């Protein structure tokens, strides 16, 4: 990973580290929602939900578009796949290490 990719990964994992943001992401992956509709489901201010949406948008996990006075948010499936790919890469490194340990144990 280059520096830009690392910064993007940091932004994605930071965004996903928050329960509310993960819930928002789940909802917008299932279908486009207005930010107002998203805000109606949380016991927090509209402004707070807007901030969560902004964090997800900066991380590239969602996109927003305007339709009249509404801001409509959609999940970016490709971005979610890139997060899954990063986790798979880490799992592969871990599995390689376990395989080497198993090989050493078999030699004994």
TrEMBL record:
Q: Which domain of life, per UniProt?
A: Bacteria
GO MF, any single term:
DNA-binding transcription factor activity
- Listed SMART domains: HTH_ARSR
Query: What InterPro entries does its record include?
Result: ArsR-like_HTH, HTH_ArsR_DNA-bd_dom, WH-like_DNA-bd_sf, WH_DNA-bd_sf
CDD domains in UniProt: HTH_ARSR
Q: Kindly give the Gene3D superfamilies that the UniProt entry links to this protein.
A: Winged helix-like DNA-binding domain superfamily/Winged helix DNA-binding domain
Start and end of every HTH arsR-type domain? 1-95
| NCBIfam families (UniProt xref) | HTH_metalloreg
Name of the protein in question: Winged helix-turn-helix transcriptional regulator
Give the species this sequence originates from. Ornithinimicrobium pratense
Q: What is the lineage of its organism?
A: Bacteria, Bacillati, Actinomycetota, Actinomycetes, Micrococcales
